[in-house]
Design goal:
The protein is α+β, with helices and mostly antiparallel strands. It has helices at residues 20-33, 50-53, 67-75, 77-89; strands at 6-14, 37-44, 58-64, 90-99. Strands 2-3-1-4 form a 4-stranded antiparallel beta sheet.
């Protein structure tokens, strides 16, 4: 089996009253400080119907070269520290971790 990039996908809803920009700024700094992260993308849902969104508002995608790099990210002291902050501001979250299968490459 060929090596696949490994993805970490999180879809979150923040608690009421949270200054989300501060959390996102901290997350951007975190991933820039950890070399195991190849790329980081995030966005705010603006199109989905509420019945489909189910209250979730933000999506985050981190890309790693391998599952081992993902595991080293999880164990990194900066990630461990940030997780305690992030978990306190989340109302609900769905997380999926998977080897990526690319069926269409970006242009």
């Amino acid at each position: 089996m060929a090596d696949h990039l490994f993805k970490h996908l999180a879809v979150a809803k923040f608690k009421e009253g949270i200054v989300v920009e501060e959390i996102l700024s901290g997350l951007e700094k975190l991933v820039s400080d950890i070399d195991a992260v190849i790329s980081f993308e995030w966005g705010i849902d603006i199109e989905s119907l509420e019945m489909l969104r189910q209250g979730y508002t933000h999506a985050f995608v981190l890309t790693f070269k391998s599952k081992d790099d993902y595991k080293s990210y999880l164990a990194h002291p900066k990630h461990v520290k940030y997780t305690t902050i992030f978990s306190q501001v989340i109302d609900k979250i769905v997380v999926l971790d998977f080897p990526a299968v690319q069926s269409k490459s970006p242009p």
